TrEMBL record:
GO terms (BP aspect): protein quality control for misfolded or incompletely synthesized proteins; rescue of stalled ribosome
Family annotation (Pfam families): Pept_tRNA_hydro
Function: Catalyzes the release of premature peptidyl moieties from peptidyl-tRNA molecules trapped in stalled 50S ribosomal subunits, and thus maintains levels of free tRNAs and 50S ribosomes. Hydrolyzes ribosome-free peptidyl-tRNAs (with 1 or more amino acids incorporated), which drop off the ribosome during protein synthesis, or as a result of ribosome stalling.
Protein name: Peptidyl-tRNA hydrolase
Family: Belongs to the PTH family.
Site residues by UniProt (Stabilizes the basic form of H active site to accept a proton): D91
The encoding gene: pth
Subunit structure of this chain's protein: Monomer.
Keyword RNA-binding in annotation: yes
Enzyme Commission numbers on file: 3.1.1.29
Catalytic residue positions: H19
Site entry (Discriminates between blocked and unblocked aminoacyl-tRNA), positions: N9
Highest classification ranks of the organism: Bacteria, Pseudomonadati, Pseudomonadota, Alphaproteobacteria, Rhodospirillales
Length: 250
């Protein structure tokens, strides 16, 4: 069993926020792979399924970001998991949009969701960091992370969500380096393909079945799709400038 946690804030007000890219990634994983429906559990929304032949519980804490550790700790204790069997997916100011990094252990870097998780289960869990760019000044951080992705960013966000969900079987299987390489290649080399539901046997390979289009999209993903279309492909090179030192969040 693996516990995969997408971080974000609950409710329509926050759905399209940069801070909620962890929720977006979790939603994409549920729809792409072999998962049951979301249901209220462990102080969040949880879905059970499999990725790459590995049994997985996906969790979106509904405690709000700063108390995410309460939900993660409850699920960890229920399934008697070790922190090393947990992967947390979250937004990273210190990475440019389109960059994806995986690591185990380490500091929270000012991220309040990670601070809370550290307090409840320690630091030995895995982290999937999805870049959202830094606004460039400390006073702009809160409005940046709690702001929605811009039209010019929508295509890149879609690439990240598609690549990470497509190759998640590699990461769950224990090969973080290979996962990062495959995801980076997909994000940088081609436009995103429409996501398709995968069976357990197909996880990590090409999905089968017809494209679902926008059927079943979350409100946040519909917003990103609308912005990508409205943008008409403009500003495709907007990946952010030089990275700056990470400041505090919310």
């Amino acid at each position: 069993m693996r516990l995969l946690v997408g971080l974000g804030n609950p409710g329509p007000k926050y759905e399209g926020n940069r801070h909620n890219i962890g929720f977006m990634a979790a939603d994409r994983l549920v729809r792409r792979h072999d998962f049951g429906p979301w249901r209220a559990r462990f102080q969040g929304q949880a879905a059970e399924g499999a990725i790459g032949g590995e049994k997985v519980l996906l969790l979106k804490p509904t405690t709000f970001m700063n108390e995410s550790g309460r939900a993660v700790g409850e699920a960890l204790r229920f399934f008697k998991l070790d922190p090393s069997e947990v992967l947390v997916i979250y937004d990273e100011l210190d990475l440019a949009l389109g960059k994806v990094r995986v690591k185990q252990d380490g500091g929270h870097g000012g991220h309040n969701g990670l601070k809370s998780i550290d307090a409840h289960i320690g630091k030995a869990y895995w982290r999937l960091r999805l870049g959202i760019d830094h606004p460039g000044a400390k006073e702009k951080v809160i409005s940046h992370v709690l702001g929605d992705f811009a039209k010019a960013e929508a295509e890149m966000v879609e690439r990240v969500l598609e690549a990470t969900s497509h190759h998640m079987g590699v990461l769950v299987g224990g090969n973080a380096s290979d996962f990062m390489s495959k995801a980076a290649q997909d994000i940088g080399a081609r436009p995103p393909k429409p996501y398709k539901k995968q069976t357990t046997a197909e996880a990590g390979g090409d999905a089968a079945g017809p494209s679902s289009g926008r059927k079943g999209m979350t409100a946040a993903e519909r917003l990103l799709a609308d912005r990508a279309e409205d943008g008409g492909g403009q500003d495709k090179g907007a990946l952010g400038g030089a990275l700056k030192k990470l400041f505090g969040k919310d």
